[in-house]
Amino acid sequence: MTIILGIETSCDETSIAILKDGNQILSNIVSTQINVHKRFGGVVPEIASRMHTEKIHFLLESAFKEANLNYSDLSSIAVTYGPGLEGSLLIGLSLAKTLAYLLKVPLIGVNHLMGHIYANFLNHHVPKFPFIVLIVSGGHTQLVLVKDYLEFVILGSTKDDAAGEAFDKVAKYLGLPYPGGPIIEKMAKEGNPRAFPFPIGLKNEGLDFSFSGLKTAVIQKINNLKKQAINFSINDVAASFQKAVIDALLLKSLRALKQYKITNFALSGGVAANKTLRDFFINELMNNGVQVFMPETKFATDNAAMIAAAGFVLFDNKKFANFSLKVKPNLSLC
Predict the structure, then answer these.
(1) 3-118+300-316 and 127-294: same fold?
(2) Given CA atoms 36, 188, 265, 1 in this order, what sign does their dihedral have?
(3) Buried b (16+ CB within 10 A) or exposed e, 271-309
């Protein structure tokens, strides 16, 4: 029996989880800072760090209480050490080092992006190797070929804005609150996704993404409509923008699956909590003979259970860190 404590503090969620044997979640406590950062229109790093410090010990106690375990039951401590906000990462890593040292258990440094991939292994139905995963979040949009548990090949990345960033920036321009993804998804349900034919960046070019041009196209369209005093529905703008993002993600995903002759596909990252996106991917990929995997919505966004799941894989392969481990805000997957 392997019991992993997971710690996640890469951005604006403080989370502690305890996982048994890789996929049995004994506890997963998440404290979000969204309501605090909302007033600033985005995450303020200094505030994020302070709030992690205020919350993390309470969450640690709550996780053990929910799991009905003691510190002595732990096999290892897994912690996110990058990518993310430097100050936020330091809070989690400091706690992890302290616990690992006092308990004399292995310390495991987990790449946050690897955590998102292994959120798909918190289900009983998991993808078979090899598979392609789309990591789509506020800071990352990547297509990754997962050959085996620890073998990753980046097939495509965004050249500018990540999909989540595009949601936030368009929402801000529309005068909508942070974060942009949930509110645009809500408004899109009341709009016409074909009202405005927004472009797909790098449509005919390989597996990389670009969302900066789409963001600009939305802004220009609204400016032109306002100049011409033409009435328009913000719901239609939201729906059309969201469709363009989903179409871009789907196009490149299908292209990668065909190019590499892969029939297993996984979705991960905070934007993967978008129900419209999830439904589109399930329908389109299954119609193309692809098996689709995705984490439960609560595990798509940042959480410590996914860090513990990745930590279990690293523990199983004896990939331990030493106490000189440092945070790496710009850490890449491979």
Answers:
(1) yes
(2) positive
(3) bbbbebbbebbeebbeeeebebbbbeeebbbbbbbbbbb
From the list 50, 53, 131, the residue with the least C-alpha distance to 95 is: 53
Chain segment 171-220, per-residue pLDDT in tens:
999 899 999 999 999 999 999 999 999 999 999 899 999 999 999 999 99
What are residue 292's DSSP bridge partners?
A: 265
Report the DSSP beta bridge partners of residue 313: none
- On the 0-12 / 13-18 / 19+ scale of CB atoms within 10 A, 230 is exposed
* The pair of three-digit structure tokens given for residue 215, joined into one six-digit string: 């963001």
Select 127-294's CATH number: 3.40.640.10, 3.30.230.10, 3.10.20.310, 3.30.420.40: 3.30.420.40
Torsion of Cα atoms, 28 then 33 then 38 then 39, to 10°:
160
Q: What average pLDDT is seen over the chain?
A: 95
Q: Which long-range contacts (CB under 8 A, 24 or more apart) does 199-203 make?
A: 199/244, 200/244, 200/247, 200/248, 200/251, 201/159, 201/248, 202/159, 203/248, 203/251
**CATH: 3.40.50.1450, 1.20.1070.10, 3.40.50.1400, 3.30.420.40. Which one for 3-118+300-316?**
3.30.420.40
- 160 contacts: CB under 8 Å, gap ≥ 6: 210, 211, 212
Q: Read off the pTM.
A: 0.95
Sheet holding 141-148, edge to edge: 151-157, 141-148, 131-136, 264-268, 291-293
CB atoms within 10 A of CB 334: 11
